[in-house]
Amino acid sequence: MEIAELVKTQRAYFRTGVTRSAQFREYALRKLQAGLRDYADRIAEATARDLGKDPLETYMCETGILLDEITYAIKNLRKWMKEKRVASPLAQFPSRSFISPEPYGVALILSPWNYPIQLSLAPLIGAIAAGNCAVIKPSAYAPASSRVIAELIGEIYPPEYCAVVEGGREENSTLLEQKFDYIFFTGSVAVGRVAMQIG
To answer: Are 129 and 80 in contact (CB under 8 A)?
Structure first.
């Protein structure tokens, strides 16, 4: 699927409202949790190929951190979704005021090469917990890790919900031409400036 079409499809899926419920968000987080466990060996192989990481280092700095974050997100999900009462201005008496957390829509995740799994999927945990759809763009400088992320996400989620775009600068540029509601970015100052201009 072309990038523009992918973003359009995700926006349409988000507008159905299916991603908003606590049940859907928890289910999606549990799928990621199970997927990370199933893919643990493949993730370790990929980071060893890309970065020479030892399997223990990969677990400590990549997979294990993600599993902890998912557990934390599931535990706190309903609390995060609750409306929060806030004081009303005197001029609005006798009104009641509150803050109602709402999902943004379609998020873009641009990650670097040095922690390719963690920095691709930690923002995804936040995006899912907040009720968003997401497009993940792993770094082309960690190709084995990028491939395993694409395989994992492609196996557990439909592309209209979460998808991975692989490639290099051309794909980055095309993604940054699209309209996203939120951008998670970790990387160079040059690309960060571009992301800030469109975000």
So the answer is: yes
Q: Please give the model's pTM, rounded to 2 decimal places.
A: 0.91
SS3 41: helix
Beta bridge partners of 162: 134
Annotate 110-127 with DSSP letters as a single string. E--SSSTTHHHHHHHHHH
N-term to C-term CA, the chain: 23
Task: Please state the length of the chain.
Answer: 199
**Structure token pair of residue 57:** 């280092």
Q: What is the CA radius of gyration of the chain?
A: 18
> Rounded mean pLDDT of 147-175?
96
- Give whole-number Cα distances, 49 to 55, 58, 60, 71, 151, in Å: 11, 12, 17, 28, 16
The C-alpha angle with vertex 40 and arms to 13 and 70, in degrees rounded to 5, equals 50
Q: What is the pLDDT of residues 3-26, one digit of tens each?
A: 999 999 999 999 999 999 999 999
- 46 or 96: whose pLDDT is higher? 46
